[in-house]
Amino acid sequence: MSTTTPTPSGPSHPLVKRPSTLKAASLPRWSPAAVALGSAAVAIGIGAGAGLDSRIQWGLIAALLFIVGSYVLAVAVEGTRQAKDRLATSMVWVMFLMAVVPLASLIYETLQRGIKVFDVYFLTHSMGVLSDDETGGGIYHAIIGTLEQVLLASVIAVPIGLLTAVYLVEYGRGKLAKTVTFFVDVMTGIPSIVAGLFVLSFWILILGFGYSGWAGAMALAILMMPVIVRSTEEMLKLVPNELREASLALGVPKWRTILKVVLPTAIGGITTGVMLSVARIAGETAPVLLLVWVNPMINTNPFDGSQGSLPLYIYQQYAAGTDASYDRAWAAALALIGFIMILNLAARGVARWKAPKTGR
Prior knowledge:
Layout: E1 2-5, E2 16-19, H1 31-50, H2 55-77, H3 80-114, H4 120-124, H5 140-171, H6 174-188, H7 192-206, H8 213-237, H9 241-249, H10 254-265, H11 267-282, H12 286-291, H13 310-320, H14 323-354
Antiparallel strand pairs: 1-2
Helix pairs in contact: 1-2, 2-3, 3-14, 5-8, 5-11, 5-13, 6-8, 7-8, 8-11, 9-10, 11-14, 13-14
């Protein structure tokens, strides 16, 4: 529809046609949901007709149909240019779902199987003199061991990792900085069992110390350091140089600028990196098996004797192969997930509390 209006020069001037709208044709907002439902229905039909038993195959067919269907429909209605944008958006959504679905499935499976014996008794008792094929017992000894070993590893790795990152970003120049960066990158890919073997050969075989939580913590600290260094280094690089220059221009020493300006600005990302490193070592089994060994009893001294650990406890109970041990393994896995979740929530709270205020 179009309207005609006279020009200011008078009624004798030719009339000018103006379009009623400049907006091109576009799909309604509900079209992606409709395409998704249609793709799922067609995928179910194809999967059932072809005899595909795996629901994963059905999901992949639906994802492919959704991407193709969204693009074809957008080309027909909105044009090629907008269709390319729809294609990219569809692929992003599909990749997102492909990442989320396994995680959600894992959490659901752990909750479903671990809730059977997950109670106060399970959290406050150890295995004691129980065998793996008997019912009862708990993870109290493993919780103590994991908390102490992760805490000791963090005490070792966090200061070293943070100071190394500060050196590389704020002071590091020349061959020394390049060498440190190279070895940090190499350490990032070191398998956990290699770190365990290194501490085993040096601390236990050469120096003659026994198995202990402290030995395991040293191996875990080796695994934490490169993660902390790399994440902290990237966060410090994101701090604008203008903040540093403004502080230095006011006569503030460089060390104080780093402490009061740079680190508080990047505290959110630094905390996230530390939590990522903690999450990595909390589930490690190989260093614990080599250095801490196995102890079903409660040992609160990480410097003397073997200790329990949640990852090793899960491995042992699942390897036992009985119904009771399977239930304990899933419940311990649920406790480990809860432990990591609590740490992440606490870190988020600290990061938000310590972050610089941006409002006026």
